[in-house]
Amino acid sequence: MSLPERLPPRGRESKTARAGRSAEIRRRLAARYPDVSTALTHGSAWELLVATILSAQSTDETVNKVTPGLLARYPTPADMAAADPAELERAIVPTGFFRNKARSLQGAARHLVSHHGGEVPDSMEALVQLPGVGRKTANVVLGSFFGRNDGVVVDTHVGRLSRRLGLTRNHDPEKVEVDLMGLVPAEEWTIFSHRLIWFGREVCSAKDPRCDACELAELCPSAFRVGRWAKPARATARRPARTTRRPERPGGGA
Ligand code: SF4
């Protein structure tokens, strides 16, 4: 098990210093990933919404294998709204949590049909009203399809990287998002999250961060301290069992 990620001690890094450090992190990530977007295959807002809902607790690769057949069978929200639930579940089994995801997909499709004429809305307020859609999914659709920077996508990679890099101390995705929105200019919110996601996959994975080959190492308070670099927890030294010696009675004797 890895040691907890070590951030600069509270109060040691000023807001100005953190802003400067995050600017340099952004600059280096932009140099590595000048143009990057979601790895979820899609051709419309509806397709991206479906793929993003399916991507929870799954990999983009798995989702990209499932969506072509799924969207050929249910090309519009109206088609999915009318789907046989068992058939819909079977179609998405490889992505995991298929019962919940099928409920979310069909609930979202029905909501789109009844409230938005079968179209995916382009506002955060409307998107988060869809069953199974939170800020993360809404941010993906708004940023990667509509080109709107309404927030930062905080998935597992973005959360982990943000904590390792000392950009947040929070674990709640919505609090992480608020912290990142305070450090990153609004026009970079979408692309910054994609850069972190790609960097999390390619360099700073959960278990095997490549700190020895990382261009952010000198800016990272967790460098060589997490994943495989973490020292094993110090074993508690075993002391020999203490023998309790009964005080001798005055005068001796057992
Ligand atoms: S130095 Fe290590 S922990 Fe920090 S971002 Fe790079 S790979 Fe991740």
Provide tags for this entry.
254 residues, mainly alpha, Endonuclease Iii, domain 2, Endonuclease III, domain 1, 2 domains, 11 helices, 48% helix, elongated, disordered N terminus, binds iron/sulfur cluster
Written account of the structure:
- With 254 residues, the protein is mostly helical.
- It folds into two domains: 15-37 and 151-219, Endonuclease Iii, domain 2, CATH 1.10.1670; 45-144, Hypothetical protein, domain 2 (Endonuclease III, domain 1).
- Helix content is 48%, strand content 0%.
- It has eleven helices and no strands.
- The longest helix has 19 residues, at 98-116.
- The radius of gyration is 25 Å and the shape is elongated.
- Residues 1-5 and 243-254 have low confidence and may be disordered.
- Iron/sulfur cluster is lined by residues 164-165, 203-204, 209-211, 214, 216-217, 220, 222-223, 226.
- Residues 164-165, 203-204, 209-211, 214, 216-217, 220, 222-223, 226 line the site of iron/sulfur cluster.
Question: How does the SSE layout of this entry go?
Answer:
Elements lengths: L14 H18 L12 H10 L5 H14 L3 H5 L3 H7 L6 H19 L7 H4 L7 H10 L11 H9 L8 H11 L5 H14 L52
Bound molecules: iron/sulfur cluster.
Iron/sulfur cluster (SF4) binds next to loops.
Briefly, what is this?
About 50% of the residues lie in helices and about 0% in strands.
CATH fold naming of the largest domain? Endonuclease III, domain 1
Q: How far apart are the first and last residues' alpha carbons, in Å? A: 51 Å
Shape estimate: elongated
Structural class, by secondary structure, is mainly alpha
Nearest-integer average pLDDT: 90
